[in-house]
Amino acid sequence: MKYKFDFDSVLAQWPLFMHGAWLTIKLALLATVLGFTIGTLCAIGRGSPNRFVAKACAIYVEVIRNTPLLVQIFLVYFGLASVGLKVPAFIAAVLAMVINIGAYTTEIMRAGIDSIHKGQIEAAECLALSRAQIYWHVILRPAMERVYPALTSQFVLLMLATSITSQISAEELTAIANRVQSDTFRSFETYVVVAVFYLVLSLLMRIGFWGVGQALFTRRRKLGTTM
Description:
Number of helices: 10
CATH superfamily of the domain at 19-173: MetI-like
CATH class of the domain at 19-173: Mainly Alpha
């Protein structure tokens, strides 16, 4: 029996796919910005002389990195509901993804911070730079520059992982695909279209991060190195 491909009925649902793609983009951007902020703070915290802060950050990283994202999403979504905080699926998805990517960003940024030679920090202190100036110009910015390719890859993977949030009815691309295929009975064609959407979004994210890298890291741009 020969299978007859029919993309027309699937492509007719393009407004739904665009809605799902937009929600996927919002999930990824919010989780990326907030997760990077949390991860950077925890990376600093892991090197803190305060043992309680350093230990708390280490425990956070180990717990999150050794449990599945899907379980974390369920814990946030159903956990908040069990204590009387009923939040929309989108908010729960963002919270879970921020917590998840924050842990991975912590380890990436910590590797970058550890790569900064202590002599550079001592030299900055001799120049009477403020603590904030030292952290930004001598530690954080050079550290981020060194691990930027790893950060980029992690954030693209995060965008692809938004598909898991369909399990709590967040209407991103995969959830839309499930709806379309149940309406059209064209499962293969539906997921081919969705795969193309994810591929395009991944490429756009990489181009966007490349542009951000070119703007932030002028030294690399002058040297002609790639991100």
